[in-house]
Amino acid sequence: MHKIIFTEEYCNPKNLHPFTLIRHIQDIRVGILTIREKWEKFLKLPSFDKWEGYYLDDENSIKIDKNIGSDTYLMIHANVLPSKSIISKIKKLQHGEFLSVANEGGIAYKFSSKEVMGLHKIKIARSVEFKESVKILQYPWQIFQLNDWAIREDFELITAKRKSKPLSKTNKVINASQVFLEAGAKVEHCILNAATGPIYIGKNAELMEGCMIRGPFALCEGSLVKMGSKIYGATTIGPYCLAGGEIKNSVLLGYSNKAHDGYLGDSVIGEWCNLGAGTSNSNLKNNCGDVKYWVDGDKREISAGNKGGLLMGDYSKASINTSFNTGTVVGVSCNVFAQGLTPKYIPHFSWGSDGITKYKLSNALDDINKWKQLKGFAITEREKKILTDICKKF
């Protein structure tokens, strides 16, 4: 049997903080699917994670050594987004060969136990050059920058040779062939413009009356968009989210709420977050200059271009009418409240917005559990361990 093994070894996961503090790179959602889900669907193979010897390792992690077993493995750099051309080239790889990209080096390796020389040591026979451009996720703002391309790619992958559930005639639709509804999706009295990109409505997801949607757009399983919302492409509302107000070119990774009026643009919101009523972010500086974000891995600010909004880590919340500055990074498990614009960097487990007062860990875990219970979930022991490690180390 063939298996995918994702490796983060050469992917600089610290440069993708705060989102890679809670999850592996391959579990980041870009487009409709996570990077893991994209590879699994393309290759029709199960996936695992390379054992790295740190707190995110779990039962899905594989240690590459002499005891790896008799399967054939495809080890893939976790930050590479697949495409049809990459998949075609990878399927032709022989044991001991790796796919190489100019300026990036190897991105995919095919091997068996015969090529394993020791712990994390693989014998390579030769490289196979891939001459086309490759989409590689290196910084967190690229999640929203790549989202237009990724929604289109995922839409084609998911809907190929499938028929959409019927769309109610109460809706006003432009380019209906690019609108796809999964089983249980509810859409009534909405305006859907798929001339600018596809519109995907996931299983049991709902657009309430009066929503105006401009593609490319994805509403994932179990999510709800409230009445009269205005959403521009390229936007992804991940699974089991609640969305409302005005949203543009943003990604909610999953299980989060931006349920009320207020603007969210060119932003990424982690899982289990909540934006209070009236909360908005700036995504363009008054002088139209470069927007710079703080990057943990490089320990410096890096330009993301002239558009950049809020990057909010998992389990964080903002009070009503919070105003987020251009290029703001909010850490994991923060409770943000402030007068005026927030600082551009809010450390993990902050209480308020100045980073001076620490959110007490026991209170944070209790509050996270209460938020999860609102959606019928509960905090897990694994989450508690990961959050405890983050609170101690950062």
Any overview of this molecule?
This protein has 394 residues and is α/β, with parallel strands linked by helices. Helices cover 15% and strands 29% of the residues. It contains six helices and 38 strands. It has a nine-stranded parallel beta sheet with strand order 13-16-19-22-25-28-33-36-38, covered by helices on one side. Strand 31 and strand 32 form a beta hairpin. The model has no long low-confidence stretch (mean pLDDT 94).
Would you summarize the structure shown here?
With 394 residues, the protein is an alpha/beta fold. The protein is built from six helices and 38 strands. It has two domains: 2-136, Spore Coat Polysaccharide Biosynthesis Protein SpsA, Chain A; 142-393, UDP N-Acetylglucosamine Acyltransferase, domain 1 (3 Solenoid).
List the strand order in the largest sheet: 13-16-19-22-25-28-33-36-38
How far apart are the termini?
41 Å
Largest sheet: 9 strands, parallel
Q: Could you say what the CATH topology of the largest domain is called? A: UDP N-Acetylglucosamine Acyltransferase, domain 1
Tell me the number of structural domains.
Answer: 2
Characterize the overall form.
globular
> How much of the sequence is in beta strands?
25-35%
Shape-level CATH architecture of the largest domain:
3 Solenoid
